[in-house]
Structure formats: structure tokens, C-alpha cells
Amino acid sequence: MSIQIYNTVTRQKEPFNTIEEGKVKMYVCGPTVYNYIHIGNARPPIVFDTVRRYLEYRGYDVHFVSNFTDVDDKIIKAANELGEEVPTLSKRFIEAYHADTSAVNVQKANLHPTVTETMSDIIAFIEKLIDKGYAYEAEGDVYFRTKKFKDYGKLSHQSIDELRLGSRIQVGEKKADPLDFVLWKAAKEGEIYWESPWGKGRPGWHIECSAMVKKYLGDTIDIHAGGQDLSFPHHENEIAQSEALNEKEMANYWMHNGYININNEKMSKSLGNFILLHDLIQKYDPQAFRFFMLNVHYRHPINFTDELLESAITSLERIRTTVENLEHRIAHSADLGLNNGMWLKKVEGYKEKFIEEMDDDFNTSNAIATLFDLSKEANVYLQEENTTVEVLERFVSLFEEIGSVLGLELRKVKELLDEEIESLIEKRNQARKDKDFQLADGIRDDLADQGIILEDTPQGVRWKRKS
Q: Does pTM surpass 0.85?
């Protein structure tokens, strides 16, 4: 069976066929970096990191790009409130994003482009849209002619007439039609800006991803993904911009993950149920949070409660205990010359079941159910009078295999001694002095994985264990 992916455009599962055999070009919309990300923002990186891991597990070479919006109205507002420069604020929260997502075992993308470093490409993209008649300048702003793109609405399955009913021209907008959307914004007094053919300004939100996809992955990519909230208008507008310019499909598969509710209510600041990932991982095992997120199919909504997370912690610990018991038995078993064929075949059956579930639109919920079944089978085997190293090791290796694909550490982590932590911090300090930031970041991320939080202060580095 081939991998099946639910395509938001067609509203059905489709066999996964890549543009280039054995290779996947994948783009996931990243965050706007003006604060720590909340747990809703954390779902796309966890989900699509797992998709990436599984595709690699199945033998694909995945070129994975995920952006940062590092200039935007929200960022400008936050920078003004904090008395910081926009680039300083953005850089700080990009680093925070990497630290927090690394704690939940999200691998960095092959590329994390930003708006500010892609500015010349964005401007060139807009110029070409104007040349083709799909965009127009109005007193320093540039807008996209939505009606001119005949397929507008194909992702969200809305017609132009339906969209027009709720469209209005807001105060200060100079667009010719209520459906038109902004590609370039003229700078307001005191705002950060870039020079352009239309004067000082900065890009609209939607254009950045179109420019980045084209620059780093090409005119057509295999998978474009993000949260369900991005399907309209962000992804709809991306399609319009990119396909108007390139005259090709922007992506062959569009994937969107579902929302997160808190105690059965929509998460929002006004309701006071806004949970930052940064805060959550200080209190709970970050791996358990990832386990919790993957326990629901990515397209379905998740309801978050402390009780459900506590349940996930207990479930993950049960699996880890099984692995620990297997490893303990390995140390005390011998090759008894028994016929292990039946048991080895059973273990292989769980691997096949895991692949079958993941091939079905990356069904991590059923994949984790398979993991529980494997754990039960392992515990049955551990009750056998005669166990052999061969079968025990095959159980352990399959736990590791599945854990790696799901981004879950299924071995119990040995707690670092205080002196080991201090030694690693000293090594990180030296790496920073040597400007070896890759090593320094790696040490910080490794410590975070083991529940050690570093805080860089003017007085030096402080550390604490997650409670």
C-alpha cells in the first residue's frame, strides 16, 4: 500500500506521488515571532515534524522549509511596547521558538528563512505580478486583483460571490475591489521599512510564503502544510499569487492540522485559557506533551486539560517501563537455542501494522495504539519461562524504531548529576566564546531534552530542572 494523504483541495485521501522520485519538497508555514508560541502554535511543528520523520523512514529524501515572519504589525506593536528594535525582538523569539520546540523533539527544518532576508525576492515577485496585470499600486500600497485569478476559492471551496458578501474596504485601504488583498504596505511614520519601486514600506503577510516557496523549493512543491486557521485566507492567497505568476500548481498536496481547545473552550487571551508552550514544558515532561498531541489524528481537534495530559504522562511511562524491563531481562538472558520464529514473526507483525496506520494519512493515533499493543505483547513475552536475547532485542529495537519516527524517547532518561550539568554549561560557554554557536545551541538543546533549563542572565548562566 502506498502512503495516502488527505488533500484539503480535493477533500479526500490521495495516493502520495512525488514530483521527483524519492524526493519530497515540503513547506510548512511558521510562526510570527513576537512572543513565545502557545500550545496551538506548537501543534503544526509537532505534526509536520512527524510527517517528515515518517517520510524519511519510508526512504524519501525530504527537503523541508519552514519560515519565520520577522516583520509584521504584531511584531512592530510588541517592539514599541517593549522599547525594542523589531530585529532584536524577532531574533529573541526565534531563538525561544527553537528552544521550546527542540524540547518537544522537533527537528530544525533544512531552512528557516525569514521575511527580512527574503525582501529582494518578495519585491521582485510583486513586480512580476504587476507586470502580468495581477497587481496594482495605489499610493504606495500594492494590491492583488483577486477577481482576475479564476481559481480563487479552490482551497477553501468558496466562490467569489460568497466571499464578496462579507467583504468591505476598511478605512485607510486604497484597493479597487473589496476582495483585493495587500502585497505591499506603505510605511507609517516611525515604522521599520524597506525601499521599493512603490516607496518605503514592507510586505503584506501572504506574499512572503509565495516568494520563499519559489526561491527555496521551486514553482511547484509536493506538500504545503500548516494549521487549519491558515487555509483561508493565507493559503488561498498564496495559491492565487503563486499560480498567477508561475502558471503552475503551487502544491500537489495541501495538509492542515486541527485546532486545540482548552477544557472544551476555544483557546483565547480573553478567556484567560491561553497556555504558552514555554510555560507548559517547565511543568510537564515535554515528551509527554508530544505524546499527548500525537494521540489524536492531526486533522481532528484536540481538547487539552491537565487531566488528559497527566493521563498521557502515565501512558508514556508505562511504555517506558516495558522497555526498561526488556533491557533488564536482556542483561540476564542467554541464547537458549530455542526456535524464536513465532515470536519474531509476531514482533514483525506490529511493525507492519505501524506502517499500515501511518501510511493511512499519518494516523499517529492508531500508530500509538499499535505501540500499546506491542507493549502488551512484550509484557506477555516477559512472563515466559525461557526468554532469549534475540527476541528481547527485537522488541527493544522496534520500540526504538517506532519511537524515532514519532519523535518519542521510549527509554527512561538517566538523570544528570549536578557536576555533569556544570561541565556541559562550561563547555557551552567556551563554545560561545569561540563563536561555535552550533555546538553551543546543541548543548543547550541536549540539556533541554533531559529536563535541564538554562537561563542566560547578566550574572551568568543559571540552570534548573523541570519540576
A: yes
